[in-house]
């Protein structure tokens, strides 16, 4: 009964703290709410008229939704770069940031699931993914493995921070024997969610653009660059607008992770380009379309060359320690690297896999306003969820939220 009473008090205090804030906080939450409502309106049109209102066709059946899903799986997995040093290696410099990173992982996973629902056309078909009821096809289908690992990782990233914050809310220390095994499991699981997502693409024999042995490792490298880059940007905002102070050395250590991962990602990109263009075959046509265009079709050229330029610029700047330790340069690099990898793992990966089609036909894909609206709504949902989680966690960590026994 006492545990339920404490939980009820935590819920009440959390609702109280997230419903109050400064003018900037209220404007932020109001703007996110407006964008979510706009996304819901666009989604209602899609529900009524079907996926025909999107730019996807039978030629290009995955577009903006799956592009964002693929990218956000990496953002979610990146939390492990803070979990492992904090919980497993006992590095206290990461301790301040780990709960923020796990909150970001939860928001990213919620967005992942929302993009999957949007891409399926509507929630009415989700029963197909329920084991024992739908056509789950386990263990042969990689998609079912993806469903399992994503939901499992979401559970882990909710349960561990909740236990720690629940103990801190009561003014007690968390027992390492309870959360460390889960933290170790989350490290392995984080690698698993991204590898399984990569295998989902690699296993499609009719799409030679994805039949690449480096796809899984490169997924991980890009994830461990973009995810921590976003965490640095979020920590910078938290340092500026809240009482939760993150030390410089914490951000500098995360920046080193971003730098190494970005360098590895760039090396793998060069390796892929060599494989595609040094001795090209007819299987290289998707890569030619992406980087140079085919038969006058050049829709993706500005996207991919912008991504590569930003990727190279950010990686080069971060490589020099003096520039990396300048926080203005660091924040700029993290932002452009995040954008570059979003393009690279989105339009630069998903769409070219369908072009040209199995019969050589080139049908380009351009997202419609409905797709953009739904996408913005889902991103706003993720930002809304993260803001609520972060505000509650910060309130507990700085001592503003504490259980009062009289209640």
From TrEMBL:
<feature type="transmembrane region" description="Helical">
    <location>
        <begin position="147"/>
        <end position="166"/>
    </location>
</feature>
<feature type="transmembrane region" description="Helical">
    <location>
        <begin position="221"/>
        <end position="242"/>
    </location>
</feature>
<feature type="transmembrane region" description="Helical">
    <location>
        <begin position="329"/>
        <end position="355"/>
    </location>
</feature>
<feature type="transmembrane region" description="Helical">
    <location>
        <begin position="27"/>
        <end position="46"/>
    </location>
</feature>
<feature type="transmembrane region" description="Helical">
    <location>
        <begin position="254"/>
        <end position="274"/>
    </location>
</feature>
<feature type="transmembrane region" description="Helical">
    <location>
        <begin position="66"/>
        <end position="85"/>
    </location>
</feature>
<feature type="transmembrane region" description="Helical">
    <location>
        <begin position="375"/>
        <end position="396"/>
    </location>
</feature>
<comment type="similarity">
    <text>Belongs to the NrfD family.</text>
</comment>
<feature type="transmembrane region" description="Helical">
    <location>
        <begin position="178"/>
        <end position="201"/>
    </location>
</feature>
<keyword id="KW-0812">Transmembrane</keyword>
<keyword id="KW-1133">Transmembrane helix</keyword>
<keyword id="KW-1003">Cell membrane</keyword>
<feature type="transmembrane region" description="Helical">
    <location>
        <begin position="97"/>
        <end position="118"/>
    </location>
</feature>
<dbReference type="InterPro" id="IPR005614">
    <property type="entry name" value="NrfD-like"/>
</dbReference>
<protein>
    <submittedName>
        <fullName>Polysulfide reductase</fullName>
    </submittedName>
</protein>
<feature type="transmembrane region" description="Helical">
    <location>
        <begin position="300"/>
        <end position="320"/>
    </location>
</feature>
<dbReference type="Pfam" id="PF03916">
    <property type="entry name" value="NrfD"/>
</dbReference>
<dbReference type="GO" id="GO:0005886">
    <property type="term" value="C:plasma membrane"/>
</dbReference>
<keyword id="KW-0472">Membrane</keyword>
<dbReference type="InterPro" id="IPR054823">
    <property type="entry name" value="DsrP-like"/>
</dbReference>
């Amino acid at each position: 009964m006492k545990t339920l009473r404490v939980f009820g008090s935590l819920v009440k205090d959390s609702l109280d703290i997230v419903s109050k804030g400064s003018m900037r906080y209220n404007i932020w939450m109001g703007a996110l709410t407006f964008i979510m409502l706009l996304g819901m309106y666009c989604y209602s049109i899609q529900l009524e008229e079907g996926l025909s209102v999107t730019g996807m066709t039978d030629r290009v059946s995955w577009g903006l939704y799956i592009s964002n899903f693929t990218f956000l799986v990496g953002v979610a997995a990146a939390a492990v770069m803070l979990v492992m040093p904090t919980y497993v290696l006992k590095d206290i410099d990461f301790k301040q940031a780990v709960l923020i990173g796990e909150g970001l992982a939860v928001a990213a996973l919620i967005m992942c699931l929302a993009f999957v629902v949007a891409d399926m056309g509507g929630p009415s078909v989700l029963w197909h993914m329920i084991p024992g009821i739908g056509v789950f096809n386990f263990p042969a289908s990689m998609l079912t493995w993806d469903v399992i690992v994503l939901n499992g990782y979401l559970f882990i990233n909710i349960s561990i921070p909740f236990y720690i914050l629940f103990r801190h809310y009561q003014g007690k220390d968390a027992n390492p024997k309870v959360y460390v095994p889960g933290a170790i499991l989350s490290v392995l699981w984080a690698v698993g969610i991204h590898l399984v997502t990569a295998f989902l693409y690699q296993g499609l024999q009719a799409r030679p653009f994805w039949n690449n042995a480096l796809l899984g490792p490169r997924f991980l490298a890009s994830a461990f660059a973009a995810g921590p880059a976003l965490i640095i940007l979020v920590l910078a905002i938290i340092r500026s607008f809240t009482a939760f102070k993150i030390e410089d050395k914490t951000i500098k250590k995360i920046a080193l992770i971003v730098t190494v991962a970005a360098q590895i990602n760039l090396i793998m990109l060069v390796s892929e380009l060599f494989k595609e263009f040094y001795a090209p075959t007819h299987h290289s046509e998707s890569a030619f379309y992406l980087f140079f265009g085919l038969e006058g079709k050049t829709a993706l050229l500005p996207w991919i060359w912008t991504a590569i330029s930003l990727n190279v610029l950010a990686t080069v700047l971060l490589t020099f320690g003096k520039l990396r330790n300048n926080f203005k340069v660091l924040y700029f690099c993290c932002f452009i690297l995040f954008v570059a990898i979003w393009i690279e793992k989105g339009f630069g990966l998903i769409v070219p896999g369908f072009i040209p089609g199995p019969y050589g036909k080139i049908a380009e894909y351009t997202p419609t306003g409905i797709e953009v609206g739904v996408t913005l709504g889902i991103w706003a949902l993720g930002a809304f969820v993260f803001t609520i989680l972060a505000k509650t966690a910060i309130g507990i960590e700085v001592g503003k939220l504490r259980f009062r026994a009289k209640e």
